[in-house]
């Protein structure tokens, strides 16, 4: 806060005793007024019961939440409480969890006496109603496999019963395990490539990537680098060209990151993402190079502890069951999050260093795609994500990939 301008300048003549007395008297009246108001305020509270004060605070909080829920398009919101009870508006260039893109009245489908939709129905409504609004909001440039996913703020039971039928559509980022991740720029200005910062480790759950964790904890992947394919290719490159380029580039970057450690002795492999033409056309050209481990039976990813970084305090170790691979592999759109239509699974994995991965298995769940596992690859294996569309920001993916 800026310093208050000085009102009295030392070079001015000293005030007379009368003037000083006047100041004191006026100040005395002012202080007395404050004392009287304070007493009235205290006495006023004394007539309220604790229950009444609690009710009043609850009503104020509810009003603030409703104002946030009812924000116009272009408003960004954030919260910390699990139930979003502390939801508030922030600037879109500040860390936030949700950017409102518009509201839709669904009273045509749900008249006043209709029951509130369940989670699955809300998910369908979000896909159908909010998907088009998102494309309009971003001028059609919504990467269905990018970092942004559709979310919705829905009326709570009380407001639904009072006749509120508005669903507030928004954009958000959801990690593979379902947790919301902060964004720090307006959606229209974001690079939608679903990449994680260098040094990020994604947890592991059911042999698949989960939410970001400390690398000292069990994890599926450690992100070693971010590579922009747009700097290498002027137009969309085929999967073969992407893999050929990333095989060399990622291995070089992993060597630099790890101090040329022999990762094979630690049961680790190098992996990377690739992009589809649809993502490329939406401007998503960046991918992650990463390190992970496969289980012996190749049924999924093995948990790892520790970082491969050359200056890490503890070196990584893959848990029992991780296979010591000699090849690397890719996973197309392993970072895809299945926005709107559940798309975002990786396609067939291609083994690096000349080794071809096996065909990816069909993804399960609504809108599941093909998963790039590959016999000789470190590609991701999709984990299902049933993102609840609750009162705030539920993800509408049927299934999503990690990292």
UniProtKB/TrEMBL annotation:
Compositional bias ranges of the Gly residues kind: 335-377, 390-403
InterPro entries on file: Septum_form
Listed transmembrane segments: 24-47
Low complexity compositional bias, start-end: 309-334
Region (Disordered): 306-403
Entry keyword annotation includes Membrane: yes
Acidic residues bias (residue ranges): 379-389
Residue ranges constituting the Septum formation-related domain according to the UniProt record: 73-289
Keywords for the protein's UniProt record, in alphabetical order: Membrane, Transmembrane, Transmembrane helix
Pfam families noted in UniProt: Septum_form (PF13845)
KW DNA repair (keyword) present: no
Origin superkingdom: Bacteria
Protein name as catalogued: Putative membrane protein YgcG
